[in-house]
Amino acid sequence: MNIVITGASKGLGKAISEKFAADKQGHSFFLCARNAETLKAFATELQARFPRTTVNFYACDMGVKAEAEAFANWVLGFNKPVDILVNNAGQFVPGSISNEPEGVLEQMIQVNLYSAYYLTRVLLPHMIQARQGHIFNMCSIASLKAYDNGGAYSISKYALAGFSRNLREELKPHQVKVTAVYPGAAYTDSWSGSGVDPQRLMDAGDIAEMVYATAHLSPRACVEDIILRPQLGDL
Ligand SMILES: NC(=O)c1ccc[n+]([C@@H]2O[C@H](COP(=O)([O-])OP(=O)(O)OC[C@H]3O[C@@H](n4cnc5c(N)ncnc54)[C@H](OP(=O)(O)O)[C@@H]3O)[C@@H](O)[C@H]2O)c1
Fold first, then answer.
1. What InterPro entries does this protein map onto (predicted)?
2. Atom of ligand 1 nearest to the CA of 35
3. Residue-number span of the structural domain to which 108 is assigned
């Protein structure tokens, strides 16, 4: 399969890449993140651990329209149909509407919503024409539930869920699947330094397992929503 994953150098994106790479089918990966060195280090490691895979990578900021579209066109340049697209790149900034700094909402919308919209819109005509593919949008429990310190992050994740639901409706007749993933807290870099006990949270691999399983159903079935929470519930 040809697998495009944004925000792939750490956390959930990294775990999803590793899960697909481990199934030994020799998939081709098209990965991005902003930091070129971290991305290259992960891509090199993935390629070495799973020699049957082909790992391509491209450093870009998915919150910048021109860079997201350049990444999309770089993917198209390989002339391979996209089988899996994981719109995962995102950023968590806690805050409250009343007192978060000016500009945070714009930043959250850029990185958490527009990133997926920009990339998907360039790849979509090709997926529709090929009548295949599966798009995963990394939403959050913060897409479903308001909570203290949700602020702009939660607003942007509600918007991403709206994007995902509309896309699902639009793509039903085109044989392209759409799944919204709504994870609760999973221990990744987003949580390092927070003081939260990693054992209280899910493992990034838990989310990867669900994405992987969902990608392996028959063409007649589409898992529309994946909702996962830590066993003890939300923090
Ligand atoms: N972990 C959780 O508890 C949790 C729960 C619900 C939803 N989520 C969502 O899951 C996604 C991944 O979160 P995570 O916890 O895995 O985060 P993470 O550990 O901080 O990793 C984020 C990844 O995305 C990349 N990235 C960040 N901003 C980017 C941008 N503008 N353009 C391109 N790449 C970018 C990062 O690399 P660079 O820094 O080098 O760009 C990194 O590879 C996010 O959308 C997040 O909102 C996470």
1. NAD(P)-bd_dom_sf, Sc_DH/Rdtase_CS, SDR_fam
2. 40
3. 2-228
- For 194, residues 6+ apart whose C-beta sits below 8 A from its C-beta are none
* Per-residue pLDDT reduced to its tens digit, 61-117: 999 999 999 999 999 999 999 999 999 999 999 999 999 999 999 999 999 999 999
In a domain, 180, yes or no: yes
pLDDT in tens, 142-176: 999 999 999 999 999 999 999 999 999 999 999 99
The residues with which 179 forms a beta bridge, in sequence order, are 136
153 is a catalytic site residue: yes
Per the CB < 8 A criterion, the answer to whether 94 and 149 are in contact is: yes
Residue 235 placed within a domain: no
Residues in CB range of 75: below 8 A, 6 or more apart: 4, 30, 82, 123
H or E element, residue 180? strand 177-183
- Are 153 and 138 spatial neighbours (Cβ–Cβ below 8 Å)? no
CB 183 within 8 A of CB 228: yes
Bridge partner list, 225: 180
Cα(91) to ligand 1 centroid in Å equals: 5
Task: Say how far apart CA 180 and CA 203 lie, in whole Å.
Answer: 19
Please calculate the CA angle 87-78-32 and round it to the nearest 5 degrees.
35
Instruction: Indicate the number of domains in the chain.
Output: 1
